[in-house]
């Protein structure tokens, strides 16, 4: 990591932590801080962080961050969790996610004029959500439990569901060397590695003469993740699906490790996320936003924020019994999934013909989304709290 990037990250992290308590009660957000920090420190403004799209640190950091996100996301959704409370998240994932993808693709085709293949790739990249950016919603007990559970499970699963679609569409567009059976092999091998490695480690840990010390149990979970990452790197298995499968396997067959790893894992993932957001912001210049994106791109971005997910979830929640104000809150908090940040970088690095145009649109949607959603999460949480506390 270049010295200027490391110094910038350290300073922004210190500022973010010092204002975090106040930020939790206001519209200030650490995600916004790092995004704007990257934007201001990048090329075109202060030129402190000299990064370009082809810089190895961009792709490496993005891959590590997404691996960590998918691993920790998988641990939020063990098989038991999915069986016991699947009603609303199932609607959002099995109906809402595909509809969001299709509506976003239609907007890209008819508003921007992209070909259908690239439009669906754009829709797949922007479909996942990540309410970790809206922590005031999923982290406050005042918010109705059904809504918190819905957003938690949805965000934990939709990155993994969207990933195979992104990979297949990217391969179809010529963005990967793997195609057809080779891509299928990489995906299946990744899932197999993600399932088998944790199962073997958990079985070993339960042997009478092998036992992790209590205070070191989080590191045992980290070692599983690192082993999965190393094996996938050596065998060219898909490391993202391996990470997601490994997280689900740990949650399902070693729930005590999920509990021990939870705080440590969230902090590690948050660090990598913020670093990736800083890099993402540094790739966005004033010229990028205001000269290189046409008016149609801005219209698409606004519609992607205000129409695609709201319309998809409105259909998904018909006759669900979820109160209207909670439906609206769930509809609003998208499409700024962190996975979309990394998928956007992967598209940019893929070298497909429309890579630059797609990245511009992805970056604009996420840029506006982080600004809009991360600055309204506290307001929406307070409104929900007031509504729930209102006497009947």
Automatic annotation (TrEMBL):
User: Which membrane topology term applies here?
Assistant: Multi-pass membrane protein
Among the GO biological process terms of this entry, one is: proton transmembrane transport
| Gene Ontology annotations for the cellular component aspect, listed alphabetically | plasma membrane
Pfam families named among the record's database cross-references: Na_H_Exchanger
Membrane-spanning ranges: 48-71, 92-112, 161-180, 187-204, 224-250, 271-289, 295-317, 329-346, 358-380
Q: Which Gene3D superfamilies match?
A: 1.20.1530.20
Principal subcellular localization: membrane
Look up the signal peptide feature and give its range: none
**Localization (cell):** Cell membrane
Give the Gene Ontology MF terms in alphabetical order.
antiporter activity
Q: Which domain of life is it from?
A: Bacteria
Q: Could you tell me which residue ranges the Cation/H+ exchanger transmembrane domain spans?
A: 12-375
What keywords does the record list, in alphabetical order? Antiport, Cell membrane, Ion transport, Membrane, Transmembrane, Transmembrane helix, Transport
- Indicate what this protein is called per its UniProt record: Peptidase
